[in-house]
Amino acid sequence: MPDANWLYQLSEIQHRYAARTILDLPVLDIARGEVLALVGPSGSGKTTLLRLLQFLEAPTHGAITFDGAVLNDHLDLTVRRRVATVFQSPALLDRSVYDNVAYGLQLRGIRTAYDAIMTALERVGLQSMARARARTLSGGEAQRVALARAIVLQPEALLLDEPTANLDPYNVGVIEDLVRAHGAMTIVLVTHNVFQAKRLADRVGLLLSGKLIELGTAEQFFSHPIDPRTRAFVNGEMVY
Ligand SMILES: Nc1ncnc2c1ncn2[C@@H]1O[C@H](COP(=O)(O)OP(=O)(O)OP(=O)(O)O)[C@@H](O)[C@H]1O
Ligand SMILES: [Mg+2]
Q: What CA–CA distance (Å, rounded) separates 73 from 7?
């Protein structure tokens, strides 16, 4: 049954590459306006899950319901545009910072958005670099441009794949403040940093080998985990 509280409802999802099952998620619901953090070791399927949530690929098996509509057979551009993702190694155009942030709006037919673009750059602390060429930026600056490019679209869901991995502490703070100010926007945050998950998330999920081992409120996940592997992961004791 579609439920108005859920932006995404995933059921019986399996995703395979060749013969390997990369994701196996009997159920995963993501609430409107929540910050859901996903943690898990390298190769556990976090980025693959974001690709499914961004509708870049359809799951091998199972259905994704988005805003009450089932999306199992086709990847509809109009639905895809309601979601934005900042991937781990974002590719920027060899143009100015400003043009990079403007690009997604132009694809949607919006050409006069100077204020919105400058506001997005300001939110990631890059308004003074609007005219810089994107290829001259540092890794952390490029990542923040990618974030500005996503938020200027005002998506209903923002998917962030390790958004602070290359950033210094000041800029980690800038990005974390931005996540905290998400308002009605749903955020799925993939992070290796369990402290960041604790700081920002309403709920936290642990992925291990494509399975959601535990999903709970941040309080429950960190203070009273049900699965012993959650405690081991949180304490940095997991051997994988
Ligand atoms: N296009 C693909 N074809 C084949 N295998 C893939 C493909 N994409 C990902 N995989 C495999 O799926 C598994 C999960 O990859 P994924 O990128 O989702 O992991 P991750 O949790 O994001 O890891 P990391 O923390 O290192 O980013 C890995 O074993 C990876 O090699
Ligand atoms: Mg990844």
A: 19
What is the number of other CB atoms lying within 10 angstroms of the CB of residue 32? 15
Side chain identity at residue 155, one-letter code:
P
Indicate the pairing of strand 203-208 with strand 35-39. Answer: parallel
Closest-CA residue, ligand 1 atom 19, reads 43
Assess contact for 96 and 114: CB atoms under 8 A. no
Atom 18, ligand 1: residue with shortest CA distance: 45
Q: Distance between CA atoms of 55 and 50, rounded to whole angstroms?
A: 8
Residue 118: band (very low, low, confident or very high) from pLDDT cuts 50, 70, 90: very high
List, for residues 60-95, the tens digit of each pLDDT value. 999 999 999 888 666 778 889 999 999 988 899 999
Q: Is the CB of 46 under 6 A from ligand 1?
A: yes
Model-level pTM?
0.94
DSSP 8-class letter at 153: T
Write down the number of H helices and E strands in the chain: 9, 10
* Alpha helix ranges (H) inside the chain: 46-53, 77-80, 97-107, 114-123, 139-151, 169-180, 194-200, 218-223, 228-234
Q: Atom 28 (ligand 1): residue with closest C-alpha?
A: 43
Q: How far apart are CA 223 and CA 167, in angstroms?
A: 28
Residue indicated by tokens 């403007």: 102
Identify whether the C-beta of residue 89 lies closer than 8 Å to the C-beta of residue 47. no
Report the run of H or E that residue 30 belongs to, with start and end. Answer: strand 20-31
195-206 pLDDT per residue, tens: 999 999 999 999
In the chain, the amino acid numbered 54 is Q
